[in-house]
Specification:
The chain is an alpha/beta fold. The chain has a single domain (2-245), classed as NAD(P)-binding Rossmann-like Domain (Rossmann fold), CATH 3.40.50.720. 51% of the residues lie in helices and 13% in strands. It contains nine helices and seven strands, in the order E-H-E-H-E-H-E-H-E-H-E-H-H-E-H-H. A seven-stranded parallel beta sheet has the order 3-2-1-4-5-6-7, with helices on both faces. Strand 4 (74-77), helix 4 (92-120) and strand 5 (124-128) form a beta-alpha-beta unit. Helix 4 runs parallel beside helix 5 (141-163). The longest helix has 29 residues, at 92-120. It starts with a strand and ends with a helix.
């Protein structure tokens, strides 16, 4: 079995690499930082291929597929970043870069590898979203919207596969705050207790192998989803804004 993991140089992506390596998977690890990938490869066993590239560049996305097509049993779309600030003040170029990585890379890789998997009627895709997928996010508007896209795209694909009685499986991971490098990239600090990447990945793998569609490794997130069903959207927007404001460094 071979897994392709994007955003594999740290955080959740790195932990997936470690756990799947222990489960006997051959790995293709993708991230921008080649030096980190080389060091990770040294710490792993078996067949590990590293590919250093920036997936916010559309050409690189297609190049990655061309290099790895026909080899992948499990695709983990994990690369992404967040952006904090008022929508009228954040840099458009940063938002477009976020859209390229958080949306376009997920979309293209899911599309291309899914087509291959459907043809052979086997394979699995995991899209890493966030608790942000379930609500609008004032002060992190672009990031929340990107994760909502990933969540809803995955849900729609799942139903199409189910209707076709396909053996291809797809899941979406929606954690809350996780102790990774995300905070530094987004220039925020979480006031809520963060989950560890180890816990999130252990939980995710166990649920994914049970063909769970939506994987939520946090009681807090599940309670938040329940609150969304009870309270008005405008009320929740006020709550979310106040939570986001506390993240400001």
């Amino acid at each position: 079995m071979r897994a392709l993991i994007t955003g594999a140089s740290n955080g959740i992506g790195l932990e997936f690499a470690k756990k799947l390596n222990n489960l006997g998977y051959d790995l293709i690890l993708v991230a921008r930082n080649e030096e980190k990938l080389k060091n990770i490869k040294k710490s792993l066993k078996g067949e590990v291929e590293i590919i250093s590239m920036d997936l916010s560049d559309e050409k690189n996305i297609y190049d990655l597929y061309d290099k790895t097509k026909g080899k992948i049993d499990l695709l983990i779309n994990n690369a992404g970043f967040g952006l904090f600030g008022k929508f009228v003040e954040t840099e458009l170029k940063d938002e477009l870069n976020l859209i390229d990585l958080n949306l376009k890379a997920y979309h293209i890789l899911t599309k291309l590898f899914l087509q291959d998997m459907v043809k052979r009627d086997s394979g699995r895709i995991l899209n890493v979203a966030s608790s942000a997928a379930f609500e609008p996010g004032p002060l992190m508007a672009s990031y929340y919207a990107s994760k909502s896209y990933v969540y809803n795209l995955t849900m729609a694909i799942y139903e199409e596969l189910r209707r076709e009685k396909s053996h291809v499986k797809i899941s979406v991971l929606c954690p809350g705050p996780v102790n990774t490098g995300f905070n530094d990239r987004a220039n925020v600090k979480f006031n809520l207790k963060s989950l560890t990447p180890e816990y999130v990945v252990d939980y995710c793998i166990s649920q994914m192998m049970k063909n769970k569609l939506v994987i939520i490794p946090s009681i807090r997130v599940k309670l938040g989803i329940f609150a969304n069903r009870i309270f008005s959207k405008k009320f929740m927007l006020k709550v979310i804004y106040n939570i986001q404001k506390k993240k400001d460094n």
